[in-house]
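Example 3.2
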Amino acid sequence: MSDVDYYDGPVPDPYGGPDLDDPAAHPPLPLGVAQVPAVFPSHCLPGWAARFVEAVTEAMQVPSALAGGLLLGALAVPVAGRVRVQVRPGFIEPTNVYVAPVLPPATRKSPVFKLVLEPLYEIERERVAAALPAIWQARTEREVAAGQAETMRRRAVKAVGDREAVADAVAAVQAAEAVQVPAEPRFFADDATPEAVAGLLAAHEGRLTIASAEGGFFELLAGRYSNGLANLDTVLKAYSGDPIRVDRRGREPEFVPSPALNLVLTVQPDVLRYVGAHQTMTGRGLLARFWFLLPPSTVGRRRVDTAPVPEALREEYAHRLRALAERYSDDVVLTFTSEAAAAFRAEEERIEPLLAPGALLAESPSLQAWAGKLVGSTARLVGLLHAAGQAGVAAHQRSDLVQAETVHQAVTLARWLAEHALATYRVMRATPSLNDAERVLGNLQRRRVQLFSVAELRTSVSDDLRDRDRLQAALDVLVDHGFIWRVETPRARTGRPPSDRYAVHPDVLREPREVPIERKQQPSVGSWGTSQERAHAHPEPSEPSGPPRCGVCGRPMVLVEVGQTSHPGCRGAA
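Structure, written as tokens:
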């Protein structure tokens, strides 16, 4: 079973109901109660991006959060280091992102990863091919100049006391050093150590994306090649744009005044547990910089006869990314209209109380650290959405002024990210007993057991769960959540005491409902739609009111708007 419980109904009150003495009268509490919205709010994207996310989701039969999360990373590749967002004087945020959808093996992460990022790899290849002649020429000129400098140096060595020969040698060396060989244009790196990342940033104007369909980069950060000593300085500074200066013996010093690193990774749940248990990564704030996404796996519910992503949509998507890269070839600072600034300020004021000790976004120190960057994440989303909306727009219609509707869309996405963050940090804190309880519950569901003894259960579980204390701890968790309860065990007059017996809640034995892979998305609003359409589709966020629960599917809503009665894109319970 998954670490995240995608329970579709309301979280029940185990102490309410008509009969307090009947355990079966109360629905069990979901294990972990880590509720996350399954559907990515693609309606917040420009039309071309929304259409692509929805087409990939359908064609590949994957969670929309996988396609949507990777698309946010793709938008950041050509924009990071070029576009900055000035919310107000003194508050400027870059647009690079660290995003990592989390899914188990065999969930088509790699094919989707390639589909979303391939147009950018193609642009990179084209730029390399175009730059190679100039690179070869500069490299040849430098080698020739270096050879001439060496000849002049040897001549000066032999001409003892000849100051003119020394001056000629010095001038030749300076001329050789002055020949600059441009680096190959580069968007991406993959299997790079933190030290190599610093060098790549220095060679490419501070702009780089680490993109990988696996989570091996976390092992590199943890010190795979440095005896387990984590080296996080580069990735911490490159997120915020803090200067990076590297001085090492035997190497030229490296200086990056304004780094902008993107991390676009797809990882497995085991990687999430690994980084969550790594004290240095958690303590120094690396995880607080990540947008982790925990969509439900679609394995076992996928259709096998789906058509591929239409070629027209793929071409449109590639064209828009190319236009985005060309549009932001120079540095740009986005500013806000007065309405946009007011909308953003209202969201800041709404978030701040949620960071207080004991509040929703401060239920653990790690979550509080993540939520402390939520306002900045919202600003980064504003930059990405504005830039994406400018892709392909005619030159005379371009603008660097952010409108209020873009802020509203960024706020919706940020709140969606916050719900995933809540689930992420609960999974990271999950105890082994909780994970074992999920496995035992799956065993009972598969065998459709109504009543069982501990001794009988031990014969049906895997070897690692047969330890008496470990199995009992898992059963205690299931009792606490109302899935099972202990029943009276008849005692024999002689012999060994009988094994404890438990009854299983009837809900566990019910046939599972047919769960669609994705609920129907809200219709995408055409490139941005008319102002009336946008206002209707995306109401302005303001103070929450009423119980935070989706009125359609019943799942809790972590961050809500006045008038919002369901999760973005929710079209009904499965």
